[in-house]
Here is the input.
Amino acid sequence: MKRLVLSVVALAMGVVACGGGTPDAPPAPKKLRFALIPKSLDIPVFDYARIGGERAAAALGVEVIYRGPDRADELRQKEVLESFITQKVDGIAISVSNASFLTPTIDRAVEAGIPVVTWDSDAPASKRLAFYGVDDYKSGIVMGEETARMLNGKGTVAFITSLGANNLARRLEGAREALAKHPGITILETYDIKEDSVRTGEIIATGTNRYPNLGAWISVGGWPVFSANALAPVPPTTKFVSFDTVPSAITLLRAGKVQVLLGQKYFGWGEEPIKLLHGIINGRKPANPIIDSGVDVVTAATVDAYEAAWKVMVAGGK
Here is the structure.
């Protein structure tokens, strides 16, 4: 009897030691962490990408870390990219400031097991798994064709770009090819503003003084329309075609300072890459690595409809 009592006590103690026989709850799944890297924090359109990324993160239950160089700086962007590799984030989405310079670092991230997708500006020779953005070459053709139409096939043109970025190079290529079909149009100069909106104003003033009868400016990036002042020296006789349709650009279009704007899917820059990374982590790679977001062509005839659509996008709609 004494032996039986001792056995029961020992059994009871064993049950208590094992937590009453209830198995431990499984650990909560790790929250995925994705890095969203713009070319620069001081370029206004990238803030919409941040908002889009945060919206996608909230819907998917993941974390998005938005970080980039304060100003356009390919070396600093490389350092930011390297820091995320060291942190071993679960995925990286980057707008590439200089494709050839950053390709080895992108490849190193992928080789370390971190999926990388690009947005806005691609690194096509890298091991990145997907790109989301406009077809830059076709967009450049649209810019050239719209300019030729406004000039009736005759006149002079100056370009504004920033050297090194794949997306801007492709737009410039497309615009040049479109203008080449019009022998009456002459390209006078191509200015490199080095992704600097302040420098843009100085270049436009210099170009206007040098070419007072210039037929048109084509800016393959949105720097001139991020503020009202950059276009102040441009006379009414000179046409202006620019990328980007942020609110300040729409104001300039309504004022007649700009005739044609090309808009991108700014919120999608953040939203779609985060969705892509989440899918890749869960075994769903995109069937086509190039995801064309489409481009919006905005003129005086279409600006009201675009503004209505913009308000929907700001509110979180499509």
Summary: The first strand starts at residue 33 and ends at 37.
